[in-house]
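Please, structure for the following, as tokens.
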Amino acid sequence: MSLIEEIDFGTPASKSETMVTLTIDGNEVTVPEGTSIMRAAMDAGHQIPKLCATDMVDAYGSCRLCLVEIEGRAGTPASCTTPVMNGLVVHTQSDRLKKLRKGVMELYISDHPLDCLTCGANGDCELQDMAGAVGLRDVRYGYDGENHVFAKSDGCSNDNWMPKDESNPYFTYDPSKCIVCSRCVRACEEVQGTFALTISGRGFDSRVSPGMSESFLGSECVSCGACVQACPTATLTEKSVIEIGQPEHSVVTTCAYCGVGCAFKAEMRGEEVVRMVPYKDGKANRGHSCVKGRFAWGYTNHQERILKPMIRERIEDPWKEVSWDEAFSFAATRMRGIQKTYGRDAIGGITSSRCTNEETYLVQKLIRAGFGNNNVDTCARVCHSPTGYGLATTFGTSAGTQDFDSVEDTDVVVVIGANPASAHPVFASRLKKRLRQGAKLIVIDPRRTEMVESPHVKALHLPLMPGTNVAVMTALAHVIVTEGLANEAFVRERCDWSEFEEWAAFVAQPKNSPEATAILTGVNPKDLREAARTYATGGNGAIYYGLGVTEHSQGSTTVIAIANLAMVTGNIGRPGVGVNPLRGQNNVQGSCDMGSFPHELPGYRHISGEAVRDQFEALWNVKLNPEPGLRIPNMFDAAVEGTFMGIYVQGEDILQSDPNTKHVVAALSAMECVIVHDLFLNETANYAHVFLPGSSFLEKDGTFTNAERRIQRVRKVMTPKNGMADWEVTIGLAKAMGFEMNYNHPSEIMDEIAALTPTFAGVSYAKLDELGSVQWPCNEKAPEGTPVMHIDGFVRGKGKFVVTEYVATDERTGPRYPLLLTTGRILSQYNVGAQTRRTENVVWHAEDRLEIHPHDAEQRGVRDDDWVRLKSRAGETTLRAEITDRVAPGVVYTTFHHPDTQANVITTDYSDWATNCPEYKVTAVEVSPSNGPSDWQKAYDAQARQSRRIAPAEAAE
């Protein structure tokens, strides 16, 4: 193995379809119109020296190193800023160019430290490379006089020198090594869109400045790493590179955080990760990253990680470390005993949205074929199960319609119930770039999120009251239908016309107008009408939504309403449009695809279908139960009732993530065998009898499927620290249960998935290695995948319009609970925080905070940073207050990343009518001053400490 070297063409590729032919150094080159001479030369294999140019940002032309000569033109233009033209004759090397380039390099080196042997960038420094490329052997100017290099000059303090900024936990900024090429500033602006960096001063005083001469940590920098990646010197360097040294080989893999599915090069020394570098050929991220994927992989080596299997008789006992065989035997004996006592259906399992497709597939196979029932569910139950129901009902398939590249062709973007800047930041950067180019943005959210206003972007914000999504979406449809803005040609051709007429008559009713619904939604009717007109008439319209849509009692209804809106405007079936759920976890799409719901086999085919079951029964050599099993909430209810007594939980922390924590505690406490398969002793493990240590994404082979249906390889870069990959653990448990599954490699599991799942029929590791990734459906009709769905027609045939009547949630405010709580995520943390809390990301978010409007805070005597009690009908907790006008009066907001807060002790059992997805986003609460943690929090902490004891290993005789 060696380092994967990616070619830097110097400037971005042109999208023009018109071709231009020119001659470079005697060779004819044909490239798209608009291509720079620098890129054309690189296409032909001629590398022109450069420092300020990189193909991730637009040409700048400041370093004057990439000069060329063009026959018939005077001077020596910069090749990065000079576009190609038909018939040009270009020379990239001549005596004059050599002299000019050497002179430029001399100036750079005369104000640069010459500590190359001990520099963190030694071996990976473009300045060093370019000095060699131009043949620099001496610097005529010397190093005397004013400089930025030395702390002292002539024995006195040097006012031009600045100390190294090491405030950021992941990288350093050394101003003495900066050549002011502006690549970092441009990457922050053009790629990330944060505009946190600038060039302060002029001439010799110019320097890169985070914000107004702040530290990197104290500035608006979001630590995405784009500046570090762009830097051609050691000015911005990863601390891991400084500590470990330069990597010697790399492996392309896929990030294990959110549903964007960024591709990374894991750059290694031996089996040690040196750094994670975003892969430019990754089709989801296109070479960009966020703080989590780029830097927050340290949890894989965290001291709290459990590496040995453990068992205990009772949850009050300390854990006992045992061998894998003993752990499997203990677990299997308990689970079989439960079935013997309580019946076959008394056990089940939950698959992980953080594990691979192959691992998830094996768990549902174990449950269906080994346990003999269909009591399998996944975390999508509590996040995007309404997406599956709503899109399957209207379009015929349970997934988003577009690829992420589609956003580059959109003209109007509607973001509802999602905050991509925090939860899906790499996609947010791509979206904001399109918005800066002129696309319009409509944000429908109770909170003024980061998407509402960012540099050079101003959205039309519809700040609705939590729980009124359906009313708002129906009011938007009302405007489109009553003002004659519907795309009738599309509807007649692609949708069921009679169903459309029924739906159109419904939305046209006066009760669904923006003015009539405003009393419910709190949205200004004028703004709502403007939003509807913009979406219907503004060109390509795309809708992106998140958990603020699905996690409601009418989550499925809202998804259907979104689909209705896309169909009535014809915004389906081409680039730049569509309905796009932003999936929360790295493989939540894949876990659904793999048959993790109790009523569906892989590929979303109902378990009751005899022909479908026949296929699986023939390959698995077992008879399958035709009856759907229990959903997660049903499992908890049955456990409390005493009929569901054993559960295998793969890579999910149901105690922290599921609603009504007290009910979950009661359910887990009632069970006789809880098996937790994870990296850490998570909150669910407090009530477990068996702990099976998991492997991280760096320690296994497999695939993830992201939010755009993109199937990508996960590649092992190191030996599993626990001794087994997760797929091997499930096979070991299955064998102990008496159900043999024989595979030698995850590729064999994928072959079985492809044989049984029509949408995956063309997927194989060989194809993924060849193409990089594919988007399902991938089969005979689409051998290289399907970037955009429903191009010629809907999967179900005709698009189905469904009437979406607004029904208010049963969770109501009142005198005792006058405020509405809604929840969400923050950029630096992920899900329940099991991974990110065990990294340096805690420097940005060390605890969950409660956002409260100044008016509500003043009424309750609450000041910023005060401890407050947050109480609902389900329970109470305490946390610190953050007073802000990001939330409207009457609404409070918090995150759920920290178990100390246990925000879900507040949320209730109310759920979506179709899928049982919990209503996390609407909880009636009251806020009052507090002196610190509640009694419940103290008791919970005491139980957790007691439960996590591990007995000392017995000495060998």
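The longest strand covers residues 876-883. The chain has a mean pLDDT of 94.
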